[in-house]
């Protein structure tokens, strides 16, 4: 197993830096870099504030000023040199400094992380803690009215985009037109720090209820139907018929024999679900409910060409994804003893 782990770690290196290299190359051909963004904002400020605000028109068009900005942000160096310098910094986990917000990328990520952790943790837990038991029940009662009704409900939920559901919930429950039962902004109230812990917990869940419903609705159907189909497939295999022929109870066959084998495809989806729930975020959901998380940060960084944030967050998220994927592969041994890493590559 140690040799397998070593091989996987070594394979992470070209995968990680290959993703960085592709993104870096694409960036070189994208029009409107950070220098152009700053110049455009300066011109807008000059037009809005007259001669006394921002850059003057003559300075906006001054080639020397543009050259100075390029030197300040390192764009006067050749692209290969900038890439090598960036990789060296990333190896020391120095993700650089945001061009437009003038903050360390690490600091920006830490500021947005509480929102992503809140949404991701509860989305992941609710999705799997509800979907897996529901999928098992649907598999056991395949073809029943319960199976048909629940399938229709989860598929309708899957067909509704999260942001459309979010708009509906805001109009209905967040003071849009009908009721004002839930708040519309943030994860906590302004007086959260002055509340006692029971009131803090209640306030937190009061704020997160509607965004959480929107985040869970899509992945809920996928995990439920995957669980059902996997269990149905296992229940039709020969070893299940043999176990039943030996007189084993339905519960013993289900949880001792079927469950362990059916769990393998579900574990395969754990890494993507985990990383996606925590770090991918939902730009539209965060925008609708005024949640300043990593999803919104990534989107704004791409739009505003804030390359240190784009590349730094890509490096961090890709690294986390590769590590979580390795952990999931190692869990296969615990779920299915037939998997032996010593035979891989032979």
Gyration radius, in Å? 26 Å
Helical content band = over 70%
Strand residue content: under 5%
Q: Give the assembly state of these chains.
A: single chain
Q: Report the mean per-residue pLDDT as an integer.
A: 78
Low-confidence stretches: 50-57
Distance between the termini: 13 Å
Secondary-structure content class: mainly alpha
Largest sheet: none
Shape: globular
Number of separate helices = 15
Per DSSP E runs of 2 or more residues, the count of β-strands stands at 0
Q: Secondary-structure element sequence?
A: HHHHHHHHHHHHHHH
Structure in words:
The chain has 346 residues and is mostly helical. The chain has 15 helices and no strands. The chain has helices spanning 2-28, 34-49, 57-60, 63-72, 79-91, 105-140, 145-159, 162-173, 197-235, 238-245, 250-268, 270-280, 283-288, 294-303, 307-335. Helix 6 (105-140) packs parallel to helix 15 (307-335). Residues 50-57 have low confidence and may be disordered.
In short:
This protein is mainly α and 346 residues long. The chain has 15 helices and no strands.
Write the layout of secondary structure elements.
Elements: H1 2-28, H2 34-49, H3 57-60, H4 63-72, H5 79-91, H6 105-140, H7 145-159, H8 162-173, H9 197-235, H10 238-245, H11 250-268, H12 270-280, H13 283-288, H14 294-303, H15 307-335
Helix pairs in contact: 1-15, 6-9, 6-12, 6-15, 7-9, 8-9, 9-11, 11-15, 12-15, 14-15
């Amino acid at each position: 197993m140690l040799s397998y782990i070593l091989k996987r770690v070594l394979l992470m290196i070209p995968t990680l830096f290959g993703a960085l290299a592709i993104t870096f190359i694409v960036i070189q051909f994208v029009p409107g870099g950070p220098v152009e963004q700053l110049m455009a904002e300066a011109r807008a400020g000059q037009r809005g504030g007259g001669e006394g605000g921002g850059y003057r028109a003559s300075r906006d068009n001054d080639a020397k000023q543009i050259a100075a900005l390029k030197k300040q942000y390192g764009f006067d160096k050749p692209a290969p040199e900038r890439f090598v310098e960036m990789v060296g910094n990333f190896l020391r986990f120095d993700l650089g400094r945001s061009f437009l917000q003038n903050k360390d990328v690490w600091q920006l990520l830490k500021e947005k992380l509480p929102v992503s952790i809140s949404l991701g943790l509860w989305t992941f837990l609710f999705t799997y803690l509800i979907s897996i038991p529901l999928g098992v029940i649907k598999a056991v009662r395949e073809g029943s009215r319960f199976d048909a009704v629940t399938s229709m409900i989860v598929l309708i939920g899957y067909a509704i985009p999260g942001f459309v559901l979010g708009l509906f919930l805001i109009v209905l429950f967040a003071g849009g037109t009908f009721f004002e039962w839930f708040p519309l902004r943030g994860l906590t109230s302004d007086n959260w720090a002055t509340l006692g812990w029971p009131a803090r917990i209640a306030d937190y869940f009061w704020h997160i209820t509607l965004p959480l419903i929107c985040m869970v609705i899509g992945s809920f159907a996928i995990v439920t139907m995957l669980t059902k189909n996997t269990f149905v497939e296992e229940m039709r295999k020969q070893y299940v018929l043999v176990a039943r022929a030996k007189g084993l109870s339905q519960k013993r066959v289900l949880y001792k024999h079927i469950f362990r084998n059916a769990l393998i495809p579900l574990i395969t989806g754990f890494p993507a679900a985990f990383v996606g729930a925590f770090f991918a975020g939902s730009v539209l959901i965060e925008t609708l409910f005024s949640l300043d998380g990593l999803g919104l940060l990534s989107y704004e960084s791409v739009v505003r060409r804030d390359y240190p944030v784009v590349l730094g967050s890509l490096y961090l998220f890709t690294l986390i994804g590769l590590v979580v994927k390795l952990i999931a592969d190692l869990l296969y041994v615990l779920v299915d003893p037939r998997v032996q890493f010593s035979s891989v590559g032979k």
